[in-house]
Amino acid sequence: MKRKENAQITEQTELAPGIWSLKLRTDMASEAVPGQFIGIYPKDGSRLLMRPISICDADPETGVLRVVYRAGGAGTKEISSYKSGEDIDILGVLGNGYDTEAVKGRKVILLGGGIGIPPMLYGCRVLKKHGIECEAVLGYADSNMFLKDDFEAVCGTHIATMDGSFGTKGTVIDALNEQGVKGDVIFACGPMPMLRAIKSYAADKGLEAYISLEERMACGVGACLGCVTKTVNTDHHTHVKNSRICVEGPVFKAEDVEI
Ligand SMILES: Cc1cc2nc3c(=O)[nH]c(=O)nc-3n(C[C@H](O)[C@H](O)[C@H](O)COP(=O)(O)OP(=O)(O)OC[C@H]3O[C@@H](n4cnc5c(N)ncnc54)[C@H](O)[C@@H]3O)c2cc1C
Ligand code: FES
Hints:
alpha/beta; Elongation Factor Tu (Ef-tu), domain 3; 5 helices; globular
């Protein structure tokens, strides 16, 4: 159920330059599905809109939900200044995540690029919990490799860096090919050029692929139509070939969206 909640910050740490890990105590931790996201509200009234951030991890037992985000613009920079013990308003749980039940009996390759890496960690944890085989391929710009140790503790992990300072030089697809990673289904999140390349890679190899579109959002709850993406089929809500990323997505079957 979507709701606004005042959550307590239990930890805020900088993992790499400009990349922050924020842990919150919230009831939403028991409802979160991999690929879903929360909206975090800056406290400065001049920044009204929530910032959509993917769930990186959630523990129903402790009630702690983790997000990892880049402090790039004014809102996320403000959020990175909050300290443990402070309160923060969040909206959640939002969106439609990866269907981890539907991939039972198959091997999943998790592909994360840049700030698309965090949601793959929760995906990996939930797949493992359900006994589903998976491996992760993570793509970074350089050797500032946030969350690498967290992945290595849960699943086989392969690395690509654009500058070649670690792992395969190039993209996650270069690493897939060079490091011989094989699987049946792809779960991916990352920048749009990476998602386009994955869509075409999956089509070439006959793999099923699910991609998360982290595009600009405003309301986050389906009301403003500010986040629509073109779809192959007619959407049941809009009755045109469009879907709202914040409600029907952010995770879509790659072949169902025109990106
Ligand atoms: C479903 C989803 C999940 C995301 N998960 C993550 C994540 O796990 N980690 C992470 O670092 N980033 C994530 N993003 C991107 C993140 O939401 C933006 O980087 C952030 O909102 C930008 O806010 P700002 O205050 O830094 O910039 P500002 O320039 O101050 O933002 C201005 C406005 O534009 C919106 N906006 C700007 N860029 C984006 C964007 N790329 N996506 C959505 N809204 C945007 C902001 O929400 C805000 O309303 C996600 C985006 C979406 C849609
Ligand atoms: S952000 Fe308003 S409909 Fe998606």
